């Protein structure tokens, strides 16, 4: 591991009041190397430069602590919907080992990458599952089974809520990672969130360390069970978002 990597990661995580042990820093470095290695033959991320990966993938993923301050001490069951290359789920697992994480993605080759990462980093209490949110959101093994559902997937909030709210248990939360300016999107999604059994509790907006990249974490409380009507069949949530 390079000194520059360790110094940069520790410095940025210090701004989130997160301290890591040496073995956790090593796991992040191994993850970074694996990402760059696999990205040469499959499209995992457009971001591969070390400092950018640290800020825009690792630190961004761990910024969840701004919305869930107690996350360091809990063994929450979390599902990461549309995880892609493992963000935010794998960074959360490395930094907060007690969490029980399910990584979900619809592309099998990404699941292969995630399983390789889990194995190489020696992570436990974490699994990668292949499937679409519209299908797994109806599966009793996953429907309303999670304390937290998180997602960095790119979709409007109405669509993303229909994909994700069914996974959160009553009393749990759905927390999407969104870009900074979300007032309009949030306004358009409020009724959809209500239909799905939720309500917006708070929005944390901030800049990623050392950048002008604005981020918003929307904390959506799951107040009631989601109607059996949702999620609708594959394709509909994105073609015809709930209004």
TrEMBL record:
Its main location: cytoplasm. GO terms for molecular function: rRNA (guanine-N7-)-methyltransferase activity. Its EC number is 2.1.1.-. HAMAP family: 16SrRNA_methyltr_G. Keywords: Cytoplasm, Methyltransferase, rRNA processing, S-adenosyl-L-methionine, Transferase. Residues 224-243 are annotated as: Disordered. GO terms for cellular component: cytosol. Specifically methylates the N7 position of a guanine in 16S rRNA. S-adenosyl-L-methionine binds at residues 82, 87, 133-134, 152. InterPro entries: rRNA_ssu_MeTfrase_G, SAM-dependent_MTases_sf. It comes from the Bacteria. It is found in: Cytoplasm. This is Ribosomal RNA small subunit methyltransferase G. It comes from [Clostridium] celerecrescens 18A. Belongs to the methyltransferase superfamily. RNA methyltransferase RsmG family.
């Amino acid at each position: 591991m390079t000194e520059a990597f360790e110094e940069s990661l520790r410095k940025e995580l210090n701004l989130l009041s997160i301290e890591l042990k040496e073995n956790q820093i090593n796991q992040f470095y191994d993850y970074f190397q694996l990402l760059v290695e696999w990205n040469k033959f499959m499209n995992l991320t457009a971001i591969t430069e070390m400092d950018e990966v640290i800020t825009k993938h690792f630190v961004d993923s761990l910024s969840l602590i701004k919305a869930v301050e107690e996350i360091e001490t809990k063994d929450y069951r979390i599902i990461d919907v549309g995880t892609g290359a493992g963000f935010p789920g794998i960074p959360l697992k490395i930094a907060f080992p007690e969490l029980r994480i399910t990584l979900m993605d619809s592309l099998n080759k990404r699941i292969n990458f995630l399983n390789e990462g889990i194995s190489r980093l020696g992570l436990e209490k974490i699994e990668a599952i292949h499937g679409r949110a519209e299908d797994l959101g109806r599966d009793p093994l996953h429907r309303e089974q999670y304390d937290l559902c998180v997602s960095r997937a790119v979709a409007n909030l109405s669509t993303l809520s229909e994909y994700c709210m069914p996974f959160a248990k009553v009393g749990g939360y759905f927390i999407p990672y969104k870009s900074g300016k979300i007032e309009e999107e949030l306004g358009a999604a409020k009724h959809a969130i209500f239909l799905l059994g939720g309500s917006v509790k708070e929005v944390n907006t901030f800049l990623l360390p050392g950048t002008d990249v604005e981020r918003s974490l929307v904390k959506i409380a799951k107040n009631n069970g989601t109607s059996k009507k949702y999620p609708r069949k594959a394709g509909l949530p994105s073609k015809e978002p709930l209004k």
